[in-house]
Amino acid sequence: MGRTYSDAVTALNTLQANSAVIESVRKAGTSLNSQAIPEMIEWCRRAGYEPADFDKFKPIHIAGTKGKGSTSAFVSSILTQFLPSSAQPNALFHKIGLYTSPHLRFVRERIRINNEPLSERLFAKYFFEVWDKLEESARTKGEPIDKTAKPSYFRFLTLMAFHTYIREGVDTAIIECGIGGEYDSTNVIVHPSVTGITSLGIDHVQLLGKTIEEIAWHKAGIMKEGAPAFTVPQLPAAQAVLKERAKERSVELRTVQENPFVAGIELGLEAPFQRSNASLAVKLAMAYLRKHHGPKLVANPLAKFVRGLERVRWPGRCETRREDGIAWHLDSGHTLESIKLAASWFAGHISRSLQPESSSTKQATSKRQIRVLLFNQQTRDAPALARALYSTLRAALKDEQPFSHVVFCTNLTFKDEGYRPDLISINTDREKVEALKVQKGLRDAWKELDGGSGEVEVKGSIEEAVEWVRGLKAEEGEGEEVLVLVTGSSHLVGGFLEVLESGKGA
Length: 506
What we know:
Layout: H1 5-13, H2 19-28, H3 36-46, E1 60-63, H4 68-79, E2 96-99, E3 111-113, E4 116-117, H5 120-140, H6 153-168, E5 172-176, E6 194-197, H7 205-208, H8 212-219, E7 229-231, H9 236-248, E8 253-255, H10 260-263, H11 274-293, H12 302-311, E9 319-323, E10 326-331, H13 336-354, H14 359-368, E11 371-375, H15 382-397, E12 405-409, H16 430-434, H17 437-449, E13 455-459, H18 462-476, E14 482-487, H19 490-502
Parallel strand pairs: 1-5, 1-6, 2-5, 6-7, 7-8, 10-14, 11-12, 11-14, 12-13
Antiparallel strand pairs: 2-3, 3-4, 9-10
Helix pairs in contact: 1-5, 4-11, 4-12, 8-9, 13-15, 15-17
């Protein structure tokens, strides 16, 4: 095996669970269990670490259903304002880590330092350091050194991220949970500096449970005695569970309301719902700074907080990209709640695009304005997500046809080359993908929703979907900007960005 970044990605992909395994777990209703953390601790030990070793990077641990990635990005952006600069030679930090999931275009996006993804060189270096340690441990124990000598995909990346942050000597690392909290592989953290729980909703029911109370129980698992804990306003049932679990762990849980200070800032992530995430991030960052750097804090760190909130960048989340005559609105929402938020965000853009018109002209324009939905969700209840999207936009716009055109595609990146290696996912049913089974089902469901009044297309790849939208603009969009919402899956948004950056789909 070679030792390049490409070799690392190829090896990493062998640790993914295939679609048959995923489906058997779903059917069995297997949940995350109490053996998950002991198993992860054993993997850490095989790599040469005890959980307490991760105290070195003073982790900020964040869980939640919606907004945990954005909140993590806000915290990282705030803290990086305290890095060295010409105006600030005696800085509080030199390196800030950020571990998130999933990635969009490159797997190395998951492991960041000072808001930048690891370079290909460093990713390959630290990947194979962990890979080799695990194989050596297996060899010493007389075990085979095949894939059974390594943990699953996410566990491996978590272990690699923690290894990277120790080897790189980061001052702190913001760690986003993968699924849940109590049994999530990131929860080998023993002494977090501070913990945060973002908005909770129903998701991953096969693993976390079907009720908000069960889900809240899992998310609350990251709270640890000695670490300040913060959350946002939750549903009463969820809030009650969080409070009870905090009490059990001798943790004071504080609820963060939307901060008026945040409302006056032009956030780097523009959607209105991001103000709640930003408010939580402000509390987490300040709690961390007071805990570890209280005496060293500048007299008024407010300017740095403002700059951090303004400069945050989180591709694929409430992001707008423009090209000649097309405004692409990207959001990787993939739950019922996040899809509704994405729809509301897009509705706001539509409303602003119509504002200059008089009310009579506005109504006429809205009927002929070209609005396109580019959508996919390969593994969840895709029709339910599409219905939520349609209902939210219909209500917000008071329009029975929120989209003039709809295109459903697979997550296949390119029509000829297929997936780029970082975007390969073997946990989907290949036969269903090739037969466009999900996309055809979505097409039929959508036609029922809008009475067949809109044009609906099915495409086999993201490249072909982008090509179709651009062709639509060329044929019908003269003189006006075509508004496109790309949503439903981080895999779709990541593949879409790859197509755009590659210059294909023309």
